[in-house]
Write a structure and sequence with these properties.
- By secondary structure, this protein is of the alpha/beta class.
- Helix content is 45%, strand content 16%.
- The chain has 15 helices and twelve strands.
- The strands form three sheets. Strands 2-1-3-4 form a four-stranded parallel beta sheet, with helices on both faces.
- The protein starts with a helix and ends with a helix.
- The structure holds 1,3-dihydroxyacetonephosphate and iron/sulfur cluster.
- Iron/sulfur cluster (SF4) is lined by residues 61, 86-88, 115, 173, 175-176, 201, 236, 267, 269-270.
- Pathway: Cofactor biosynthesis; NAD(+) biosynthesis; quinolinate from iminoaspartate: step 1/1.
- Its cofactor is [4Fe-4S] cluster.
- It holds the Pfam family NadA.
- It is an enzyme of class 2 (transferase).
Length: 311
């Protein structure tokens, strides 16, 4: 919980250090409550570039802070917990990209989910997030698309853009993959008429069961603006906080109900990011993110192309 004194201290430090706090929907509730902007990974990447402050505190995982630094190299980017990584970001081999380039030549686009390392981004033609992957892949001139690292988002994109030959990699998110179809079906049986909302990082059999597929902000929006009363949510539990705030703000709290799978999806890395750590890193200037300069220019190019093609 954010106390009044904690909030006052954060406000004072933000002014003193010309800092802005960004938070992803998966971090702890009190870290979200201290943030100036809370959003999905695309929204936060765009904000990081647009803002004109000297320091960004990025309450999220490593690839998010690195993307912010790449898009805004003049800013100091601080991570409340620099050990918060994303295992999927490392699930791709350089040889996979090299072999595909060798095989398909000019008619290949390497499309990289932002949940990736700076080195992987630098090997790619364009980055995407879950909110813009379908649109961006559809706009690429090449017919062949190597989608890295996430096989499930890649599979979803392949289904949505059948004109492309999408080549899949074998990366995945442990937390989303653990959501089981049987759990979703049980919830549907218990709550007939519920709208099943899934993040495209879920396995394809869960995505196929969903009525709505979208990014974290897409799922939140679907619940808040939907006419239905019951929702099954197949993504990390952290989104509950924004849903609760927005249901309360729109007078819908008593009317709508939502349910997560029985084994509540928690991202252990996002869960490391607490309000206390946000305050500490702002105060002490710890957790500064640096990107590997050998890969920075290439990675920045792929991120900038995403911003261009997502328009
Ligand atoms: P969003 O882009 O939907 O916020 O997702 C980020 C993420 O890491 C999902 O696991
Ligand atoms: Fe990475 Fe999965 Fe956590 Fe998202 S939920 S940050 S993909 S480990």
């Amino acid at each position: 919980m954010v106390t009044d004194s904690m909030r006052a201290e954060v406000e004072r430090l933000k002014r003193e250090k010309d800092a802005v706090i960004l938070a992803h929907y998966y971090v702890e509730d009190d870290a979200q409550d201290l943030a100036d902007f809370v959003g999905d990974s695309f929204y936060l990447a765009r904000k990081a570039k647009e803002l004109s402050c000297a320091t960004l505190v990025f309450a999220g995982v490593e690839f998010m802070a690195e993307s912010a630094k790449l898009l805004s190299p003049e800013k100091r980017v601080l991570m409340p917990d620099p050990t918060a990584g994303c295992p999927m970001a490392h699930m791709v081999r350089r040889s996979t990209v090299e072999e595909a380039r060798e095989r398909y030549g000019e008619d290949l686009a390497v499309v990289c989910y932002v949940n990736s390392t700076t080195e992987t981004k630098a090997l790619s033609d364009v980055c995407v997030t879950s909110s813009n992957a379908v649109r961006i892949v559809g706009r690429l001139p090449q017919r062949n698309v190597l989608f890295i690292p996430d096989m499930h988002l890649g599979h979803y994109v392949a289904e949505q853009v059948p004109s492309k030959n999408v080549i899949l990699n074998d990366g995945f998110c442990v937390t989303h993959e653990a959501i089981e179809l049987v759990e979703v079906q049980e919830l549907r049986a218990q709550h007939p008429g519920a709208v099943v909302c899934a993040h495209p990082e879920c396995a394809s059999w869960v995505v196929d069961e969903a009525d709505y597929v979208g990014s974290t902000s897409g799922i939140i929006e679907r619940v808040v603006s939907g006419a239905e009363e019951d929702y099954v949510i197949c993504t990390v539990h952290g989104v509950h906080h924004e849903i609760d705030l927005r249901l309360a703000a729109t007078g819908q709290q008593g009317r709508k109900r939502y349910y997560f799978p029985r084994t509540t999806p928690v991202c252990p890395n996002m869960a490391k990011v607490t309000g206390g750590k946000v305050l500490a890193c702002l105060r002490d200037g710890t957790g500064e993110t640096d990107v590997d300069e050998r890969f920075a220019a290439g990675a920045r190019r792929a991120l900038d192309r995403m911003l261009e093609l997502a328009r």
